[in-house]
Design a protein that fits this description.
heterodimer; A: 58% helix; B: 237 residues; 5 helices; 31% helix
């Protein structure tokens, strides 16, 4: 039952909500989605994973994923082909992410490439390559740099614990971590 | 400045490690790659990138709801330019000629909080119950100039306001889904507890985060009578 608000029922007027229930389904070709719900179900995990890989935390990734769907909802016609729908969602994701970074830290830390994967409709998306890549990057670092990142990112130690494990001061551990990340960034760029 | 920005990269990395949202700040461009590396390391933890069941289910519901609202509206506004009346975002996108690039970001920012200016819904006007009676809701003494009071009867909830000696009242139920509004005293507005929607004390829409603008609040007729303030409300059945 939809609540109709306090407006008098006998004047439907511009506020005449309440009758809308199920999203309207369209009859469509094979290569398209049947409804917005299908679009959602088929794309939500992929978009979330993409966003997560770009912001590294669940809450922001959830917000961004939601933002993409809400932004695409109006303009996107479901009876486009799957490929077109996905391309549109991806383009939306790209601009949503860019806006996120500008608002949050004034510069774009990560971005989504225009030719980002997504060529295989219907498949659950490839498993993430990130762990392998990360291992490679870590292995390339000098010992102490690798160690601080392992302690903090893989073993989830606090900066204090990591400092103590490495027998350095907290201030030193912070500097070490900062340099290690910069170095990791530089060596990551070479792959 | 450099030190503050340095603090921003440290805070961002600590937030990542704590699993929190990235904090707002101003990142030194020289630190961008370091933060990117930290994000990559963080995101690489096995299983970290699966969305939670709860999130997926909840967003599915929100998307369905927003979609239903858009559909209903499209049906109502039938013919003429579908892009125009809904929200600014659509107009922006239409103007961009199908290219998403420019449109969406402005769109998203815009649809989040917008003033009432171009909402789709026009005033719903006063509540005029078929079967009404004048019901005392407060007294002159209790409602000096500048004061707002909530009232609730068996048939209605509302807020009665004294502005410069003129008393008026609006419905106390949000026009989106009927959640009961709360008086935000410091800001002098009515806030919906459900979806971050706010109305002015005259019922006009101030803020909303929904896909389309909820209607303004219906007004309620009020009058002064022998020191009491009465509202025209539906009779209890």
């Amino acid at each position: 039952v939809t609540f109709d608000g306090p407006a008098p029922r006998r004047s439907p007027g511009p506020d005449g909500r309440g009758s809308e229930g199920e999203p309207r389904l369209r009859v469509v070709g094979q290569d398209s989605y049947e409804s917005w719900d299908h679009v959602y179900v088929d794309n939500v995990s992929r978009l979330y994973r993409l966003m997560y890989s770009k912001v590294g935390n669940r809450l922001d990734a959830e917000d961004l994923t939601a933002e993409v769907f809400m932004a695409a909802l109006g303009p996107l016609q479901v009876d486009l082909s799957r490929g077109e729908v996905r391309a549109y969602l991806l383009a939306t994701a790209r601009t949503v992410l860019a806006g996120f970074w500008r608002r949050r830290l004034r510069l774009e830390v990560t971005s989504i490439e225009p030719d980002h994967e997504d060529a295989a409709p219907g498949l659950p998306g490839p498993p993430s390559q990130a762990p392998d890549r990360t291992a490679t990057i870590l292995q390339r670092l000098p010992d102490r740099y690798r160690r601080i990142l392992e302690l903090r990112f893989l073993e989830a130690m606090s900066i204090k614990e990591a400092a103590s494990a490495m027998d350095v001061t907290v201030a030193n551990a912070k500097v070490l971590q900062h340099r290690a990340l910069k170095l990791a960034a530089a060596s990551g760029g070479e792959t | 400045v450099r030190r503050r920005r340095r603090a921003d990269i440290d805070r961002a990395v600590e937030a990542l490690l704590a699993g929190e949202r990235l904090p707002e700040g101003e990142l030194d461009p020289r630190d961008a790659a370091a933060l990117e590396a930290a994000i990559e390391l963080r995101a690489a933890r096995p299983g970290a990138d699966s969305p939670s069941e709860e999130f997926v289910t909840d967003l599915r519901r929100r998307v369905a709801q927003a979609h239903a609202e858009l559909e209903a509206e499209t049906t109502r506004t039938t013919s003429s330019a579908p892009a125009e009346p809904r929200i600014g975002r659509r107009a922006l996108l239409a103007a961009a000629g199908g290219s998403v690039a420019a449109g969406v970001v402005g769109a998203v920012a815009e649809s989040r909080f917008r003033g009432q200016a171009s909402g789709t819904n026009t005033a719903t006007g006063p509540i005029v119950p078929d079967n009404a009676e004048w019901v005392p809701v407060t007294t002159d003494a209790a409602l000096p100039d500048g004061e707002v009071q909530r009232f609730a009867t068996a048939t209605a909830v509302g807020f009665v306001v004294n502005r410069g000696g003129t008393v008026s009242a609006v419905s106390g139920a949000c026009t989106h889904q009927g959640c009961l509004l709360a008086l935000n005293q410091p800001l002098g507005r009515l806030d919906c507890p459900c979806h971050r929607t706010s109305f002015a004390l005259d019922g006009s829409l101030l803020l909303y985060q929904l896909q389309r603008a909820p209607a303004p609040l219906p007004t309620i007729s009020v009058r002064r009578r022998n020191g009491t303030i009465e509202a025209l409300l539906p009779k209890e059945v």
